[in-house]
Amino acid sequence: MDRFKAAAGIACAALMAASPVAGQASDSAFIAPFNNVMTIASTVPKNGDVNPYGLVVVPTSMGRLVAGDALISNFNNHRNLQGTGSTIVEISRSGSVSLFASPDPNKLPGACPGGLGFTTALVALRSGWVIVGSLPTKNGTSATMQAGCLLVIDQNGTVVETISGGAINGPWDMTAVDNGSSATLFVTNVLNGTVAASPNIVDQGTVVRIGLSFSTNAPPQVTSETTIGSGFPERTDPSSLVVGPTGVGFAGDGTLYVADSAASRVAAIPNAMLRTTPTGGTTVSAGGALNDPLGLAMAPNGDILTANGGDGNLVETTPAGSQVAVKMLDTSPAPPGPNGNGTLFGIAVTANQDGVYFVDDGTNTLNLLH
Predict the structure, then answer these.
(1) What's the topology of domain 5-12+46-293?
(2) Per-residue pLDDT at 26
């Protein structure tokens, strides 16, 4: 791969750890043994895009994709305007960096209303397809947000199709159930009535299930599209553009967990693969250490990991709702808020399950809790 940048001076720092009640992480918590944060590399490509949002670990080596590498999508352009970033970088654990994709918004193979502004919605499939969400703006303000799309990118970084219209309206985050020859996407959407209601909260955020099938030498085909989650609170926000349902993670029992950011809770949508009617989700856990949860990932032990937008903490919650561990990922001052306020978005468990990757948009870096 054409690596244009290597990590300069990988840094490692001691980490503060606590649980919401006892001051110590539960011994059974997945993140309990991890007490250090390492900076892997900068996420800023040559064109200057900043504000890393999406994060996913590559499952299979194919084309320019290397198994175990992290893919990161950038939301802002070099002028730091939100909803204008258009790059995905690939970073190895050793800190080597390459540009995976940088599509031209004027040469897309399908519709993407408003253009490009890559969000936290990012998945990489075993078949070599990478899918990223776009929630674009004209000038970085919420008043100019448009519906956007999902872009389907091949193993060499070329956009081959877009998925837009219908229930796709501001795709904000995404996860996938990958079956090899087919896949199911779960996409959160945050623009249903949000701009019209600005700056007030409107309970119209959604989760959309999209079925995909694959065939040789052809782009994925959409086989179904069903709204399975609705009524999630969403609003415009001057610092993060929009706040609404963000991280999603699929559990082995068929439950889809949602980081309900505006309500500071983790919600559960049962029977997510098969349900035909939408729900606002049952509350798994709320308050406590949860403080505007954004990124969400499933831990190997079945617990739910969430990264707080309101502070620099990573929270581990059991499916029964117990918050069993908290790790402070970002200790940088962020006046007038707490340390790490507004810096955390995408998170992902490493390929060998010995840590948690996270992006920090305050420093524009990929980091590792280990």
Answers:
(1) Neuraminidase (2.120.10)
(2) 72
